[in-house]
Design goal:
Layout: H1 11-19, H2 25-28, H3 41-106, H4 110-116, H5 120-200, E1 228-229, E2 247-250, E3 256-258, E4 263-270, E5 276-282, E6 286-296, E7 303-304, E8 309-313, E9 324-329, E10 337-338, H6 340-345
Antiparallel strand pairs: 1-2, 2-9, 3-8, 4-5, 4-7, 5-6, 6-8, 6-9, 9-10
Length: about 350
Amino acid sequence: MRSFRRHPLLLPVLLCVLVMPVARPTEAMGVGDGEEIGSGISAQVEQLYEDAALATQQYEAGRQEADVQRAQAEQAQALLDGERQEIARLHEDLGRMARAQYRTGGGLPMAAQLILADSPDVLMRSQHVLTQAHLALAGSVARSHRAEARFAADEAKARAAWQALEQRNIELAAVKGTIERKLEEARGKLQGQAAASVAAGSCRGSVRLHQPTTKSTQPWVAPVETYVLSAGFGSGGARWANRHTGQDFAVPIGTPVRAVGAGRVVSVSCGGAFGIEIVIQHPGGYYTQYAHLAAVAVDQGDRVDTGQWIGQSGTTGNSTGPHLHFEVRVTPEMGSAVDPVPWLAARGVPLA
């Protein structure tokens, strides 16, 4: 019989997975008591974005881990079934050997075997074979019983480990859901403050967001990291007096907005069709505009680097939903826009 230990259950792997602590982003980062963090709701939204990203990453990793463990558990179960079939075959062989031993004289008294034997040598050889067969039978039976006991113990442990892994994933999903609910509430507050500022025609000032820990190594980047392209340059519609003058990026409220390149902030304003907006001047005579924001993180005259967070997206001004309106201009004023998609593509930033 093949040794069971050549094909161990993957129990140690499961147990190692389960002893890993379940990181709770909201606890580790100090979020969860309903209090605003740092300078206000903008900082809270920023923090919750980071927490949500971490929770999603942990949840997805746990889910993928569970899928792998499930496949490995099924493979181990198939191996167990094969081992049991082999033990069953062994028992059948043992029965045949015992019956054969009885038919060849194994059940006769020694005196009768001496009378019936052709010679003492033949009898001794026969007895030696029978003794070895008997020892083999006894050893095989003992091994099969031990293997069955190991199978039962390992199955019980694997079942408990699998249940613990499932519970861990349930907890991760609950943490993720809690953070996402808090984030949605914070987004609503952020947009409410932004709408009040636009209605009053007075910007509430810049908020200093925690900048990304790693700076961009490229001279140009997209204005948001993750997005879905919506209305494009030159498209028509009832929302615009003429044609659409920029490229829209559909993103949730509070998404960090980045400077596409190094430059200087020439204006920060709130009011009008663009709501809260920022215009940046770049070397080479081009300007970029970022509109419908919920908050700004820079002031007029500030120098910005490529990829620096300059604000948070929203839906202020003439906007039908959360998005970033992005323009490239040859002057700081509207009416001088060029198509931003090929402009960024020519600088190594293809939009998809």
